[in-house]
Each structure stands twice: as structure tokens, then as C-alpha cells.
Amino acid sequence: MNTHTQVSFLDGTYTLIHIPLEIYPTLLQPILRILLPQTQSLNFSRDSTEYELEGLTTDFQHAFLNISVTPIECSVVCHSSWAKNVFEPALNALPKHVGKSVSISEDTFMILAVTTAGLDPGGRVMELSSPLAFAGIPIFFITTYYSDFILVPTQEKLEVVLALDARGFELSGDHHSTFVNSSYAPRTSDGHLPQQPPGTPPPSNYDELQARTFDLLLKNNVKPIVEVGLELVQCSGRETSPLMNAYTTRPSMSRKNSTDYRRSWITHVDPKLYTCIVSALVSQPRFLSLTLAQDDPPSLLLDKALLPIFDDSLMGDIRGCLIPIFLDLRKLPAKSTGIVCGVAGRIAKGADASESSELSYLSTARAGTVILSQVQSIRAMCILTPLLSK
Predict the structure, then answer these.
(1) Fewest CB within 10 A of the end CB: N or C in the chain?
(2) Cα(350)–Cα(106) distance, rounded to whole angstroms?
């Protein structure tokens, strides 16, 4: 099957924040300040650096934001300026023994936005993660209702470009940050692959990659976990006029080009949806992952028990049933590679084509979540449990 995959680098650098669940209530206020960006400027003059935080479009919305609450952690991916100007002051105000349990990534990340035609969700996870896994580049992977997003270390941009080039992705026209692969035909020569440090050559095939992945997980006592009674749905904020134009033709990144400061952030969003999101976050949900991206309506992966909060503000298969399998990665080295590709690939290898087609993946700061149908999750646990048992 021919596929058409486009990979684009989003503007800006992003930070990954890990918040332990026990102090999530303490840091809910800065989380909401980021979710509702209009509130950030209220206490500052327009001439101050805090007023012009980066990462917002001209309609005052985030170019990218992910807030995830899972049974393992709360994780936030936000533009680095928000981490510095909102989270760091909030942490500095806490007692040291409390604040030190929160982790703000020292390295920044770039975000690759991916659109693919002709591949099922499981195929997308494999196609998109494998070039970077074989190049030894650590990634975080986020599947949403509309798109896929990959976080890669900013300092490894050249290696990412070379890895994509080696796998048949080519620059698209005049867009120096967009790559297109129309047929996914990996190049036979590996002369352009990033050079690995001595003693750590990249895996030569999928079997070796999966073996390394599960050896690392086993050494760190990572077990697959299914939470009893937790069922998820993947859905989207409903597109309603007059919001449709805001969702389908979002402006470019620069707020500084806009002189109409009288228009509010709330002009461009669905107030009902955001009220529901705030209500869900305040409830400290068992599971809620919200992704905002400048070219998509809001995307949510959430505990089915939260659906009554949202009433009719969501669209999608809300009657569906997805089961998350959690991998607690808090003991792993921060720059571990191949986890997404190795785990997803092993599950897909042990299932037939129709079963692997619905596999999706969510990376948070210190955990990985494989998302499958109920039947698929049972079979996946039968595959993962023996591999991760000593």
C-alpha cells in the first residue's frame, strides 16, 4: 500500500514536566494558567517580557500543549517559556522537599507534527518511530484524534533530519521544516545515518531492537499494568460555528504581529468545552489526556467515567471502549531509546493485521501507555507479561 506521510517541525522549543500525583492538587493552579492563556497576561504590563510569552498563535491559543493525568503521574508538555514563567515560580514557592519531586526537563524538545494517509494507527506508530529508534534518538510519541506528534531533543535536530532522509523522507518544496515520504521506501545505504558513540551501535533489525527494549525494561523491573475498570474513549471537541474557521485556518505563531489586544482568547474557543475540561482537571481524574495543536480542534483521550461532565461538547466514538496498558518508566534513564517502537512492534508482531491496526501510543514524562481495544489488550498482556517477568 502506498502511503503519504508529511512530517513538519513546529516552531519553538518545548519542555516536559513530570508532576507526582500526590502534589497534583498543589500545582493545579499553574496547570490551569497554562490551559487558559488569557489569564497569564492580566498581572503584567504589555511592555513586560512575561506579557509576551512565546508559543501562542495570533488568536491567543497554544501552538501545542499536552496535559495528561494518568494513574502514574501528571505530565505537561508546554512551550519552554511557559515552563520558565509559570511552573518554575510556582515550584520556587513550594517547600523544597515538595518542589524537588517535580521534574522539569533540562533539555528542550522539538515537536514533529505528522499527518499520514493510507496507514492505520498501528502502522503509523511503527513507521514514524522506527527511523528514530534505529538512529538511537530518544522520542516521546503522542497519538491524538487527528494527528500524531513526536517529541525529539532539540540538540539532535540534525540527527533527526538525517534519520528521516535515510528512511526516504524528502524536504517538501520551499518548506525547510517539512518532510514528505510518498511511498516509504527506506534507502539501502546507511552512510547518512547519525554516528553512534563507540560501543553503542544502533540495532540492525526489528528483532534486535525489540530484544534490547525488553532487556532494558526487564532490568528496571517495568511491568505492564492494566487498571481495573478503567476504560477510555478517544474524541474531539465539537466543531461549532463560529469556531470552525478558527479550527481550520489557524494563524501563524507570532503574537507580536497582532495589534488587536482587545480580542480575548475566549473569542476563539468553545467556552462550554473548556469549562468541562477545567471541571475534569479539578476532579483529579484517573485518566485524561488533552492535546491542543494549532491546526487541529482539541483532542481528548479520557476515562469514560468523565463523559457526563462533557455533555454534548464532544464528538467521536464515545460509545467505544479502549483499554490502556501502562508502563511505569520512572526508573529508566532519561534518554532511553526505542521504547515506543520496541513495545508497539512486539505487540503488532504477536497479533494479526486487523488487531494491530487499532494500536495507539501515548508517551508522558515518565510513563508509556499502549492503547488498544478490549480484546487486543488481553492478547497484548499475554505477549508482554512473559517478556517482562523475571
Answers:
(1) C
(2) 37
Task: Quote the cell numbers at residue 388.
Answer: 517482562
The pLDDT tens digits for 109-148 are 999 998 876 566 677 787 778 889 988 999 999 999 988 9
Express each pLDDT in 239-254 by its tens digit.
554 444 444 444 444 4
Query: Comparing C-alpha atoms, which of 44, 71, 38 is closest to residue 57?
Result: 38
Do 182 and 4 meet the contact criterion of CB atoms below 8 Å apart?
Answer: yes
Report how far residue 147's alpha carbon sits from residue 121's, in angstroms, rounded to the nearest whole number: 10
Q: Are 366 and 102 spatial neighbours (Cβ–Cβ below 8 Å)?
A: no
Please provide the distance, in angstroms rounded to a whole number, between the alpha carbons at the two ends of the chain. 40
Most confident of 190-204, 256-270, 374-388: 374-388
H or E segment and range at residue 344: helix 339-349
Distances (CA, A) of 53 to 18, 23, 264, 295, 296: 21, 26, 15, 20, 21
- Domain 5-172+204-249+265-388 annotated CATH 3.40.640.10: no
Q: C-alpha cell of 366?
A: 515518565
So where are the chain's domains? Answer: 5-172+204-249+265-388
Sequence-distant (≥ 6) Cβ neighbours of residue 332 within 8 angstroms:
216, 217, 220, 222, 339
Percent with pLDDT over 70 in the chain: 77
